[in-house]
Design goal:
single chain, alpha/beta, Urease, subunit C, domain 1, eight-stranded mixed beta sheet, 13 helices, 22% strand, binds zinc ion
Length: 395
C-alpha cells in the first residue's frame, strides 16, 4: 500500500454529501485548510490539515484550491482529419448543419487503427493536462458495420464509458434509405458494437434521425443491456427530450431549444440535462438557458462535446467560463455541473466528488478559489492532476 497526503489545501471542493448542502455554493461542500489522503488510487481520508494522518509522501498544495477531476460526459474523440476549413467558412457566415458529420466519416474510415489510437491518446493527454480525469467517448464517424466496431473497440482501450453512436447521421451510401440504415444499426451493427459499449446514443434531430427511428434504436440498445443517452434539441425543438425521459436515459445532451413541457419532464425525472457550451460558441447558435433548468430543479451537467465539427475544444474550464458568462450559471453551479453533474450523467458515484472511497481523481489549481475557472478564462490554471491516485504535474 502506498499513500500520499495532499495537505495545506486552501479551498477543497468535495461535492460530498458529508460536507455539502443542496443548493448553490453549499452544494460544493467546500472545506478550508483541508487535506486529502490518497491510498492505492482511492480517497482514504478527508478533513482539516491539522488533523491529517501521516503518509508515505506529502504534497503541499500551498494554499491553493483542489477540486474533483472534471468528468467530461460527452465527447467524440475517435476520428480522422479535422474541419478547420468548415469552421472558417462558418465564421465567414455559413450556417452549421448536421450533414458536416459525413466529411469526418471519410477521413475516419481511411485512417488506420494505429492512427486513430494515437490521435485518441493525444486528446486524452490534452484533457488530463486540463484537469479532466473521466471521459465518455462515442463512436459515430464510422457508420458502417466494420468501422463502428473499430471505433467502439478502440475507445474501449481508453475508457469504460464507451457509447455506440452508429445513429449519428445517415451515411451517404444510405441516402434516401434512412430506415434501411436503422435496420443495420439495430441489427448486425449493434451485435458487433454492444460487447465494447456501455451506452447507446442517437442524434434525434431534423437532418439526422426522427423520434420514431430514435426510439427503435434506443430500445434495441436497452434490450441489449446498454444504458441510454440522447442528442436532442440542438438545432430546434423536438420530441427527443421527452423520449429520453420516457426511456429513463441517463442524460439528454444539448437541450438548446426546450419547451416548457421538456423542462417539466426533465425536472420530474432522473435524466440529466447535459449542456455543451462549446457547441453554441463554435456554431454561433444561441446558448441553452441553464438558469431555467436549474430553477426548475433539473440536474445539469457540462461537457465539452469535443468533436471536429461543432466543438473542437477539450477544455472543461472553457465550458465553465462560457456557462457562467452566457448561460446564467453561477461559478459554483458550473463547477458542480462539470464534476458531480458529469458523474450523474454517467450514473457514477465513484467520480466527481472527493470523499472516502471515491476514486482519487483530483485537480489542483494555480489559484486559491474555484471561481478563477470562470474568472480567468483561457488561462492554464491546472497545476497538478491525480487520476486513480497517480499524479501528473504541468510546468
Ligand atoms: Zn455530441
Amino acid at each position: 500500500m502506498s499513500s500520499e497526503l495532499i495537505t495545506n489545501i486552501g479551498q477543497l471542493v468535495t461535492n460530498s454529501t458529508e460536507f455539502t448542502g443542496t443548493q448553490g455554493v453549499a452544494r460544493l461542500g467546500v472545506l478550508a485548510d483541508a487535506a486529502v489522503l490518497v491510498e492505492d488510487g482511492r480517497i482514504a481520508w478527508v478533513g482539516p490539515s491539522a488533523d491529517a494522518p501521516s503518509a508515505d509522501s506529502v504534497t503541499d498544495a500551498e494554499g491553493s484550491a483542489v477540486l474533483p477531476g472534471f468528468v467530461d460526459s460527452h465527447s467524440h474523440i475517435v476520428f480522422g482529419g479535422d474541419r478547420a476549413g468548415e469552421f472558417e467558412a462558418r465564421m465567414s457566415g455559413e450556417k452549421y448543419s448536421a450533414g458536416g458529420i459525413r466529411s469526418t466519416v471519410g477521413a475516419t474510415r481511411s485512417a488506420s487503427d494505429e492512427q486513430l489510437r494515437a490521435r485518441t491518446r493525444g486528446f486524452l493527454d490534452e484533457m488530463l493536462a486540463q484537469g479532466t480525469t473521466t471521459v465518455e467517448v462515442k463512436s459515430g464517424y464510422g457508420l458502417s458495420l466494420h468501422d463502428e466496431e473499430r471505433l467502439v473497440r478502440l475507445a474501449a482501450e481508453f475508457t469504460s464509458e464507451v457509447t455506440f453512436l452508429g445513429a449519428h447521421v445517415v451515411p451517404a451510401e444510405f441516402a434516401g434509405r434512412a430506415d434501411d440504415y436503422v435496420d443495420l444499426v439495430v441489427g448486425d451493427m449493434l451485435d458487433v458494437c454492444a460487447p465494447h459499449s456501455k451506452w447507446i446514443d442517437v442524434f434525434c434531430e431534423t437532418g439526422a434521425f426522427t423520434v420514431e427511428q430514435s426510439r427503435r434504436i434506443l430500445e434495441a440498445g436497452a434490450a441489449r443491456g446498454l444504458g441510454v443517452r440522447v442528442h436532442a434539441s440542438q438545432l430546434g425543438p423536438g420530441a427527443g427530450v421527452r423520449l429520453a425521459v420516457e426511456l429513463d436515459a441517463a442524460s439528454v445532451d444539448h437541450c438548446t431549444f426546450l419547451t416548457d413541457e421538456d423542462v417539466t419532464a426533465l425536472a420530474g425525472s432522473s435524466t440529466v440535462a447535459t449542456l455543451l457550451p462549446g457547441v453554441e460558441f463554435s456554431t454561433r447558435q444561441p446558448y441553452p438557458d441553464a438558469r431555467r433548468l436549474l430553477d426548475a430543479g433539473v440536474t445539469v451537467a457540462l461537457a465539452s462535446d469535443c468533436n471536429p465539427g461543432s466543438s473542437f475544444t477539450s477544455s472543461m474550464a472553457f465550458c465553465i467560463a462560457v456557462a457562467v458568462r452566457d448561460m446564467g450559471m453561477t461559478p459554483a453551479e458550473a463547477v458542480w455541473a462539470a464534476t458531480a453533474g458529469g458523474a450523474a450523467a454517467l450514473r457514477r458515484t465513484d467520480v466527481g466528488r472527493i470523499e472516502v472511497g471515491a476514486r482519487a481523481d483530483l485537480v489542483q489549481l494555480r489559484a486559491d478559489s474555484y471561481v478563477h475557472l470562470a474568472y480567468r478564462p483561457g488561462v492554464p490554471l491546472i497545476r497538478r492532476t491525480w487520476k486513480n491516485g497517480i499524479r501528473s504535474s504541468s510546468r
